[in-house]
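The following record pairs a protein chain with its ligand, fe (ii) ion.
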Amino acid sequence: MRNQRVGFLLGLIFAVGLVVQCNGGVTSTYRRRLEASGDMPLDADVFWVPSGYNAPQQVHITQGDYDGTAVIVSWVTADVPGSSTVKYWKFCSNLNHSAEGDVRQYKFYNYTSGYIHHCVLNNLEPDTTYYYAIGENDAGRKFSFKIPPALGPDVPYTFGLIGDLGQTYDSNITLTHYKANKDAAALLYVGDFSYADNYPNHDNVRWDTWGRFIETSAAYQPWIWTVGNHEIDFVPEIGETTPFKPVRNRYPTPYEASGSTEPYFYSIRRASAHIIVLASYSAYGKYTPQYQWLQKELTKVNRTVTPWLIVLLHSPWYNSYNYHYMEGETMRVQFEAWMVQYKVDVVFAGHVHAYERSHRISNIDYNITNAKCSPVPNNNAPVYITIGDGGNIEGLATNMTEPQPNYSVFREASFGHAIFDIKNRTHAYYTWHRNQDGDAVTADSMWFTNRYFNPTNDS
Ligand SMILES: [Fe+2]
C-alpha cells in the first residue's frame, strides 16, 4: 500500500513536471489588423508647423546629467539661426533664469537641416516644476517640465516605454494612448525613431516631421534615448558614410556625465532607478569602449540609493519571433553574465515589432565544451521585455517560433506601449497597453519585486 502511494506521488510529480516543462506561456491571438499602416502625410495635423517667423519647432527635452537635476532643451528653427537662449523659471516664482545653448546644421546628401539648437539647464531643484521659453518676438513658445524628486530608494516614479514608434496612423494611436496616462513622468525609448531611412536617400524631411509629431510629449517630459538600427543612416552609395549623423545632431544624450565616450551608451539615475542604456550598433566586444564602460558603470550602481536597475537596448536578447531572430545573440553572450551578477531587474528592448515578456531566466553556463546552452530559471536574472510595438511603417511581426519557448511568459503581435510604475524599494507594477483597448485596459501586467531588496520569485 505504502509502495503504491509512493508510486502515485512520484507519478503525480512527474506529470506536474511535464505540465510545467511543456508550458511555454501564452501566445495571444488578439489582434485587429495585420497590414502596416502608411506614414501620415506631410500635411497631417500632427506635423503642424508653429506659426510665426522662425518659430521653434521639434521641441524636445532629455535628462542632462547623471542624477536628473539638469535638462537638455532641443529645438529647430527653419529660417535663420535665431536665438539659442532658454529662459526658465520655477512655478509661482518671478525669478527668471536664462541659459545659452549652441546651434548647428548638418547636410545629408541633398538635404540641409534647419538650425538645431541644444541648451543645457543645470542645477535645477528636485521635485520642482519649471516653465521654459524659447524663440523670439511673436514666435516665442513656452513649455514646462518637472524635475524628479531627489534620488532615494523609496521615491515612487512612473516611467513610460515605447519602441520603434515611426510616424504612421498606428504610431499616432500609440502616442495618444501614452499621453493619456498622466502618471508617466519620463519615457524610456528603446530605439528606432522616425524611419526616415525607409524613404529614398533617407529623406531627412521625415526626421523633421517626426520631431514635430513627438513634441506634444517630448517637450514636457524627458525621453531617454536608445538608438536602433534605423538611426545608423549609413548610406555609402550616396556618400553618407558617417553613421548616426541625423540622430547625433538632433537627439543629444548626457553620456559624458556617466563617463561614456559615445552618445549611444550611457547611464542616468532618476528618482529610485539607475538606468543603463546600451548600444546594439556600437562595438561591445571585450576591450571595446562600451565593454570597458559597462564593466565600470555596473560597479557604480548603489542599490541602497537607486534600488531599481533597468537596462535599455534595441536588439532583444530573448526573442521568440522569427523577425530579427538571434540578432541580439552576440551581445547577450557578451553581457548576460553581468546582468545576473549585478541582479538587473528588467531589460527592455525594441526592434521586433510585437510584444513579449519572459520569465527570469539565464543562459550563461555554456563554455563551448559543456553543452549547457539552454535558458534555465534564475531568480537573479532580469525579466526580458520586447516592446518594439510602437506602430511604424514596417508593420507587425506576426510569425513566431513554435512551440513557444518555456521562458516566454506572454507574447502578442499588437501595437502598444507600457508603463513601469515604481512604488517603493520593493515593488513596481508593470503594465502593457495594446492600442485597440481603452487607455485603462492592461493586456499584460506583472508585479515586479526588486532584485536587491525583495528578490522573490515574481515572474
Ligand atoms: Fe530596429
